[in-house]
Each structure stands twice: as C-alpha cells, then as structure tokens.
C-alpha cells in the first residue's frame, strides 16, 4: 500500500512534452514559423534583412503592451485604455521635452502619468468594484482627450535639447544591429515571464484569476495585487509610447487609436484566457508576432489591405477554437 | 484544559438574534458534529470562530487566553483553520500551489527570492501521503475528483500546527466513496490531536466520525451530548423541534 501510494503521489500526470504539445502558445508559434517559411519561399521580399528588421520592430509595440495586458487578463480583467494611454504618455513626453526639459524629466513625467492612470483604474476596480470594462472604457476616452488638451491637438516633432537622444533611444540599433525596441521587448518579456513563474506576486495574479474568492479567503492581498496589475498594464503602454515616440520622431493625437484591440487579440492568440487564470509572457510575444506576420505578408503577397482585419480576426477565432476543441475533448 | 471555550456567546444583526447565549467547550483531538436546520445559527457561530464576525456578547477563550479577532486571517494565526464548503480552491493552479496559497515557500535572498517549487511539491506530497490520499502535488486541481479536492483543502490546514479545524459541509456534494475518504481525512486530523468541528446535514457522517454532537435550533444550543448516548432519531427530533431540549 505504502509503495503504491508513494508512486501515485510522486507521479506526474503529464510529461513536459505533453504539456508543450497541449499549449496553445506552442501551436501558434508553429503557425508563425510555417508562415515565415512559406513567405520566404513564396516571395523574394520577405526574408530580406530590411523586411525582417521592419517586422520585428513593428510588432514590439503591440507585444510590450500585450505583456502588461496578459497580467490583467490573467486576473480576469481587461484594460481597454492602453491605446489612449500610449497616446497620452507619448504626448506628455513630447510636450515636456518640447518645452525644453531634458529627456530624463520627459520620461519621468511620462512614466508618472502612466502610473497615475493605472492606479486610478486599479483603485476604481479593486476598491470600488467597478467592472474593468467600464472604467477602462471611460479611461480610453479620457486619456485621448487629455492628450489633445496637452498638445492643443497639434503634431509635436521638436523634442528640445535631447531631441537626438530620444530618436536614438527608439530608432537606433545599439546591439548587433537589432532594433532597440526589440531589445526592450525581450528584456520586458523575460522580466514578465520571471515574475509570473517565480514570484509570489505572479502566483497571486494566477490565483485571483482562478478563484478570486478563494484567494481572498487564503489571505492573498487581492485588492493591492489588482491595483498593481492595472498599473503595470498602463506602464507597459507608457513605455511603448516612449519608445514609439523615439522611433516615429513625431507624436500626433491619433497614435495608438484602436491599438487596444490588437493588443487584446495578441494576448488571446498567445493563449491568455479572457475568463482569467491562464496566460504567459511568451504567448503575448508570439501572438503579437503572428498578427504582424499576417499584416506584413498580406502586403507582400499583394492582397488588398482591406482584408487585414478579416485575417487577424480569423486568426484570433482560430487560435481560441483550438483551445475550445481541446477542452471539449478533456471534458468528454 | 479546553482548546476552545465559548462562554455565553450571542450575535445579533439588528433585531435578528442569530445566535443566543451559546456555550461550547472543545477538547483537543475531539470531533464535534454541529447540526441544525438552515437558519439555526450554526453558520453564524462558526463564522465567529473563524474571525468573520465578532460576537455581540460573550467571550471566546483559546487554551485559556481570551480570543479576539477582527479579520479571518487572524484566526489562522491562532491555529484555527477553515475548510470552506466550496473548498476555496483555484482550479487553474496545481494541488501544491493551492495548499501553499498565501503561505508560499521561498528560497534565495533579497531580490533573488524565488518560489521554492521543489520544497512545496515535496511537503505537499508528504501531507497527501499522511492523509493516505492519492493526490499528486503537480496536478492541476481542475482535473481532480471531489475527494482529491477535499484532500487539497484539508492539506492546507495541516501546513501549520493547527489546533482547530472547522469544516463546513465537507460531504455535501460528493460521491459515496469520496465521503468515506473525507471521513478518513477527519480521523487523521483527530489522531494528530486536532479538534474538529464538523458542520453537516448528513446524519450518518456525524454518527460515523464524531465523538459528540451539538444541535442548534433558532439560535440556541438545544443539545450537547456524546454520540454514544444519542441516536439519529433523537437528533432529528431536536433539529426539527419535536424534542424540545435534552
């Protein structure tokens, strides 16, 4: 009896191979790789270093925000304000630097703005019980309007004394010719992955998404964690805004419009479950990559750009469909 | 000395008297069945022991010292653990993660402090072994049977040196075989010298595992006697009011 019990308890239900094969992220990654292989063969423009440089750089902004969004989605929430927050943070950075302040001051103001917005969202949701959808929908409108107020709805392209530093920060390639935004994305993804897997904070984020009531009863500081998660989401939008400003070299009040939908799609394609409790940092990256590869390939294959939405929407539905099929099989 | 002693505890919510002048004493290693119809006041009573409510009147003493709690988390600090009716488990986490939820083990120092998966899996495995439950620490709770889920919830109470375990309807919605498993888990707790309060509607379970039965009706304690000297018929009568008091 003792031996069989020992063996039963010591056993793993599934090996790592099985668990990799059953993860949505893995299959999306395969899809990305297959698409890239196909495009390399089918077109002579895809596998050029210039195009790859463009792709990697383009998807970083969505990917960085998708990292923050993934945390929010794991807790069972949603943040619709990220596109507008990106715009507002870019604009705060631009306006402050345009007024002659250094880049440090500009970034501090921008990051500060993001954190205040995130804290506001988080407090309204965690302490006052607002549905995340409602409060962040409100913030979507508020943040973009504030960006217009801050800039008087003009385009800012002069960034004061540190103009060149900012452009190098976002547009340069300091390490081995890899675009700077890609480096930031990888560092942030590793950080997010580490936090989710190895820290108590990450564990609590999953616990809240799995069963918020249980988390509360077992002494998890649910409210504080929720506020932190929305602050991280806004911060990721702010960071993406700062980098994007450096890359574009100009800020208008319509940047990031509609971006929240792309970000959420990226997180969901990458395996985050909107019902909460499931999601990974690598999934956010891979989901964002798939979206960008689809966009890029449609252009290269000469397909009308109007079809973009159909393909991206189709990919989102398809990715989740696989997940549904798997859970149907499990429940049988 | 009694591990827990309630003296003349009352609780009212506005004009509603939920618990009225109840005194109970609980010994270490004793299983007490707490029975009563819906609205008899047993949940309120247990919630006071769990730190959810504060009594309107009366005192609670634990090992002789007065027990005053403001938040549920303080109950745990005093060695009172609760197994909730819905078990309060996170389906998306592993068994070990659920056992250690809120009390994670770490290794490393300072900013390099990370979750100690290995130790948590090992310790959780040891507890499941002690409970004689075939529950694998690395499995997701989502995929577990009702009995295994109970084992996870009960394993939580064994992490620290619990003195009292409150169980709210642990056998309410599980299969017959799993009920036997859960009753065994309760016996294991008792053998460790833990006092168990078992709230249940199921007469056979209480008569199977409890040493003593307490019956409440309309906020009052109407019976408190050894299982050996009572019978299911008598308890039923006490619950419904056919028998006034013993």
Describe the structure in brief.
By secondary structure, chain A is mainly alpha-helical. Helix content of chain A is 75%, strand content 0%. Chain A contains 15 helices and no strands.
What would you say this structure looks like, in words?
The complex is a heterodimer of chains A (about 325) and B (about 250). Chain A is mainly α and about 325 residues long. Chain A is built from 15 helices and no strands. Chain A has helices at about 1-10, 15-20, 25-40, 50-75, 80-100, 105-125, 130-150, 165-170, 180-200, 200-210, 210-215, 220-250, 260-270, 280-300, 310-330. Chain B is of the alpha/beta class. Chain B has a single domain (about 5-240), classed as Rossmann fold (3-Layer(aba) Sandwich), CATH 3.40.50. Chain B has eight helices and twelve strands. In chain B, helix 5 runs parallel beside helix 6 (about 175-190). The chains are: A mainly alpha (about 325), B alpha/beta (about 250). The interface between A and B is medium-sized, with 28 and 33 residues.
The H-and-E topology of chain B, N to C, reads as EEEHEEHEHEEHHEHEHEEH
> Helix/strand-derived class of chain A?
mainly alpha
* Rg value of chain A: 21 Å
CATH architectural category of chain A: Orthogonal Bundle
* Beta strand % of chain B: 25-35%
Poorly predicted parts of chain A = none
Quaternary organization: heterodimer
Q: Any idea how many domains of chain A?
A: 1
Name of the top-level CATH class of chain A: Mainly Alpha
Largest sheet of chain A: none
- What is the CATH topology descriptor of chain B? Rossmann fold
The Cα radius of gyration of chain B reads 19 Å
GO molecular function, one term (chain A): transmembrane transporter activity
Protein name (chain A): Sugar ABC transporter permease
Transmembrane segments (chain A): 26-47, 59-76, 82-101, 108-130, 173-196, 227-251, 263-291, 298-322
Membrane topology (chain A): Multi-pass membrane protein
